[in-house]
């Protein structure tokens, strides 16, 4: 069975984006980049990885899941951002834009879709955002991988949206601090 991994950058105070979707305060340069890329290869948009000379093959994931707001960050310039992965975008209100041939837009229940994906053969499934989708899929997440950035947002999109209080135990797998101040924290379900 395939695992669902929520792999995402997060501020030290638990936000994955600012109030208007800002994420430019996250560190995109530093000693953490090479080490994290080696472990989580393929987790950058196809064109961005190519421009940086980064290989996207051989990574832990073959499928990426996104909520509409996460997907829309690249629009209109990047309607097919992760062409090297199977891309599934969840939305009940939007239509796929022109040029999004490799994107599966669905209004289905995310839990049902994830359970079907887990039963398929293949590599891991990457939930790259957003917080509201993560809240819906919280009980389906097998691994939580956080790129904790040394920055406070104060407000914005929470890591798990408006998930109600319902504690769920996670087991620490690895914690890797970098001189940049970024900490890669990896957890598995209890």
UniProtKB/TrEMBL annotation:
Pfam families: RibD_C
Domain Bacterial bifunctional deaminase-reductase C-terminal: 4-184
Coiled-coil residues: none
Taxonomic superkingdom: Bacteria
Name recorded for this polypeptide: Dihydrofolate reductase
